[in-house]
Amino acid sequence: MDARILVVDDEPNLADLVAMALRYEGFEVAAVGSGGRALALVPEFRPDLIVLDIMLPDISGMEVCRRLKLDGVDTPVVFLTAKDATEDKVGGLMAGGDDYVTKPFSLEELIARVRVVLRRTRVEERRTARLAFADLEIDEEAYEVRRGGLLVELTPTEYKLLRYLLVNAGRVLTKRQILDHVWEYDFGGNDGVVQTYVSYLRRKVDAHGPPLIHTVPRVGYVLRLPRTERERTGAAAAGSP
C-alpha cells in the first residue's frame, strides 16, 4: 500500500521504532517529536495518515487533531497513547481520530490498524480531492486552482490562503485566525501580511469573475458570492418547486 505516514511521538526510541517498522512495510515515513512540528510539516509532507501520540510536550495530540480539522485537513489519525480509559478513547474519537491504539502495543497490531484505516478512508479521500465554491475549484491532487475553467497560477502561500478561505466559505475569518492557520502557529509576523496576500489573491482570483473574496471591516475576510449573486441564487431557490 503506497502511502505517506507521519509519526508524532516525543519518545525518540519509540518514534524511530514505529517509523522503521512502517518503512519496512513499504510506507514513506516522517517522524517528529512535537505537535507544533507536526502542524508545520503536514502541508509540506501531505501525509495519508498520522500516527499521533496524545501526550506531547507542547500541544496535545487531540488539539493537533482539532486544529488540522479546522484547517480543512481530513487526514486520518490513529492515536497512540498510554491512556486506556474508555473516556480517553471516546475523547480521541470525538476529536477527529479514526482509531486508538494504547501503549504497550505490538507493531503488528499498529500496522494492521494503519492498513485498515487507510483502506477505509482512501475511497472517501478520492471523492473529496476537489474543493469547489461557485465557479472556483481547487484540485488538491493536481495542486491546481481554476476559476470559470481557467487556470489560476498561485504561489504556495496564496494557495494555502485560498484553500483556507474556501473550506470555510461563508464564514468570516479574522486576520489572527488566518495567520495561525496559513502561516503556522509560531509565525512572528503581524496582521499586515494577511492584508497583503489577500490583495495578491484578489488580483488573481477575482480577475476571472465576480469578486468572491470580501473584506468585513474591523473583523477579517470571507469567501462568498457578491450580494447580487446571493440574492439571485436565493430568489431562484425560492422559486423552485
TrEMBL record:
Gene Ontology terms, MF aspect: phosphorelay response regulator activity; transcription cis-regulatory region binding
Residues bearing the modification 4-aspartylphosphate: 53
GO cellular component, one term: cytosol
Entry-linked SMART domains: REC, Trans_reg_C
Location of the Response regulatory domain: 4-118
DNA-binding stretch(es), residue numbering of this chain: 128-225
Keywords: DNA-binding, Phosphoprotein, Transcription, Transcription regulation, Two-component regulatory system
Transmembrane segments: none
Any single GO BP term: regulation of DNA-templated transcription
UniProt key word Signal: no
CDD domains reported in the protein's UniProt record: trans_reg_C (cd00383)
Lineage top rank: taxon: Bacteria
InterPro entries the record matches: CheY-like_superfamily (IPR011006), OmpR/PhoB-type_DNA-bd (IPR001867), Sig_transdc_resp-reg_C-effctor (IPR016032), Sig_transdc_resp-reg_receiver (IPR001789), WalR-like (IPR039420), WH-like_DNA-bd_sf (IPR036388)
Domain OmpR/PhoB-type: 128-225
PANTHER family linked to this entry: REGULATOR OF RPOS, TRANSCRIPTIONAL REGULATORY PROTEIN TCRX-RELATED
Protein name stated in the entry: Two-component system OmpR family response regulator
